[in-house]
């Protein structure tokens, strides 16, 4: 047991854990359950009293069950090559409760491992040093109002995420949805589509409808449904909405002139577009160039799902190995703009039945990468194949590098980036022979590298990246919304720059 758990603060628990493992104790599972159940109220108190959200190597323990806690500790094998004992994180939780912490997202897995690897034998002192920036800083802030203009696939997922994030962090709150009225029972239909989704499952909570006042109540969040045909004619202040961020997910307007119509409405401060913007608009891929957002930028675009899926991976590969040129081929799930059966369509090939065909089409994602990463200007080409699946897509990055690389080296680098870097929310990594597209439905990452599919031949590198083109992208959009609102949670321990992990 020497060298595995070396600090007095966790020694007693380590002895128990070691005994359970070595003697194959039949009660080991029950002991884990007991420890997890002891952790649950501690996690709840940190959230209620300090607005602190707890995670284990990026796996949030928000509304977690005892099983979720155990699974998150098993996930640590990707980091430590062994399961992280709950006995190692429980003391960390107890110490956190004794500290007057400000709002933050705290990874107790990373803290526990960091303490075990440190020279300190005082857990309290170690945590005080690691979390010095947020000790004694807790204060309540008024959340920023958010309005969804449009309520389609992305709009409804944004609503789900925003409702959850408000309960978790409180920095932004969904106040209204603006749509065109399509029928007398429009409100009921909108609520029903929010409640049930054929791809993403049922809404996690309760939804009720106030027909008289055009309100959808979702987990206690009051969502005012506003019927309007023009982005410039809504008086949001009449509904108590002020300085709002309007998220346009209709795709009707993609240039400054069209999107500026939102700014003519009373109560609007900023606009975020859930599509690639045209002209001089700032196209943002969160994690890559969100630092370019300033108070002067009133209109920001969140690029496309594919651009978000590939740009973070391309950045770290270019920083580490140098990309001379490449081709991006996306295998993309069908979308609403395609026809269900053969019919006229203004776009080439998109008129053919989406559920029966692979449809070759164009994508601007490869060129759009250079809007977030100027160093890729002129280096990438791209195409897309639409396939008969409703969600989750794949990008094949076919790259020529400046120098020869080794497959295991590249995979190990991308794995470390997914675990330890400041792009951990954007890049995930998986190494499984049984993974298929449906396994990534609900992924919150911009993209997930499939390590088993990586191909290397000298300077030639092929990397396969899965991405939930609906939910993963929507999470990237929400990160931009929170950045614009100044409501992004601080994450501790601080993550490393990806280039330092090579």
From TrEMBL:
**GO terms of biological process kind:** glucose metabolic process
What GO MF annotations does this protein's record show? Answer: glyceraldehyde-3-phosphate dehydrogenase (NAD+) (phosphorylating) activity; NAD binding; NADP binding
Q: Which SUPFAM superfamilies match?
A: Glyceraldehyde-3-phosphate dehydrogenase-like, C-terminal domain, NAD(P)-binding Rossmann-fold domains
Which species expresses this protein natively? Corynebacterium alimapuense
Keyword terms of this UniProt record: Oxidoreductase
Name assigned to this protein: Glyceraldehyde-3-phosphate dehydrogenase
Q: Which residues form the Glyceraldehyde 3-phosphate dehydrogenase NAD(P) binding domain?
A: 144-305
InterPro entries named among the record's database cross-references: GlycerAld/Erythrose_P_DH (IPR020831), GlycerAld_3-P_DH_AS (IPR020830), GlycerAld_3-P_DH_cat (IPR020829), GlycerAld_3-P_DH_NAD(P)-bd (IPR020828), Glyceraldehyde-3-P_DH_1 (IPR006424), NAD(P)-bd_dom_sf (IPR036291)
């Amino acid at each position: 047991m020497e060298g595995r758990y070396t600090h007095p603060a966790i020694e007693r628990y380590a002895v128990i854990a070691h005994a359970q493992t070595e003697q194959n104790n039949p009660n080991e599972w029950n002991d884990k359950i007991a420890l997890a159940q002891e952790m649950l109220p501690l996690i709840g108190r940190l959230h209620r009293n300090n607005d602190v959200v707890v995670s284990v190597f990026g796996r949030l323990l928000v509304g977690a069950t005892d099983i979720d806690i155990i699974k998150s500790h098993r996930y640590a094998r990707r980091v430590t090559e062994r399961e992280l004992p709950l006995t190692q994180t429980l003391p960390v939780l107890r110490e956190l409760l004794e500290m007057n912490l400000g709002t933050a997202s705290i990874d107790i897995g990373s803290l526990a491992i960091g303490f075990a690897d440190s020279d300190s034998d005082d857990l309290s002192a170690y945590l005080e040093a690691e979390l010095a920036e947020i000790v004694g800083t807790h204060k309540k802030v008024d959340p920023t109002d958010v309005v969804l203009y449009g309520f389609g696939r992305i709009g409804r997922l944004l609503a789900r995420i925003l409702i959850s994030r408000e309960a978790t962090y409180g920095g932004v709150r969904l106040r209204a949805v603006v749509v065109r009225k399509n029928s007398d029972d429009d409100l009921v239909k909108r609520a029903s589509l929010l409640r049930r989704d054929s791809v993403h499952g049922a809404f996690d909570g309760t939804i009720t409808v106030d027909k008289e006042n055009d309100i959808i109540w979702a987990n206690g969040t009051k969502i005012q449904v506003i019927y309007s045909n023009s982005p410039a004619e809504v008086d949001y202040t009449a509904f108590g909405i002020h300085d709002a961020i309007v998220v346009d997910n209709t795709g009707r307007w993609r240039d400054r002139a069209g999107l500026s119509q939102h700014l003519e409405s009373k109560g609007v401060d900023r606009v975020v577009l859930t599509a690639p913007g045209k002209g001089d608009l700032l196209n943002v891929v969160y994690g890559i160039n969100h630092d370019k957002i300033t108070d002067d930028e009133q209109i920001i675009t969140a690029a496309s799902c594919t651009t978000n899926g590939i740009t973070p991976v391309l950045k770290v590969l270019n920083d580490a190995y140098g990309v001379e040129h490449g081709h991006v081929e996306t295998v993309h799930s069908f979308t609403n703009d395609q026809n269900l059966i053969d019919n006229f369509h203004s776009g080439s090939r998109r008129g053919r039945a989406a559920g029966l065909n692979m449809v070759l089409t164009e994508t601007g994602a490869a060129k759009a990468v250079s809007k977030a990463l100027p160093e890729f200007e002129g280096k990438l080409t791209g195409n897309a194949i639409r396939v008969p699946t409703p969600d989750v897509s794949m990008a094949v990055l076919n790259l020529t590098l400046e120098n020869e690389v080794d497959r295991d080296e590249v995979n190990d680098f991308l794995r470390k980036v997914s675990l330890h870097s400041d792009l951990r929310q954007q890049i995930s990594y998986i190494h499984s022979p049984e993974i298929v597209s449906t396994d990534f439905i609900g992924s919150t990452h911009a993209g997930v590298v499939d390590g088993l599919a990586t191909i290397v031949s000298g300077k030639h590198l092929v990397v396969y990246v899965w991405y939930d083109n609906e939910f993963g992208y929507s999470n990237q959009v929400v990160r931009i919304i929170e950045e614009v609102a100044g409501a992004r949670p601080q994450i501790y321990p601080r993550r490393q720059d990806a280039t330092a992990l090579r």
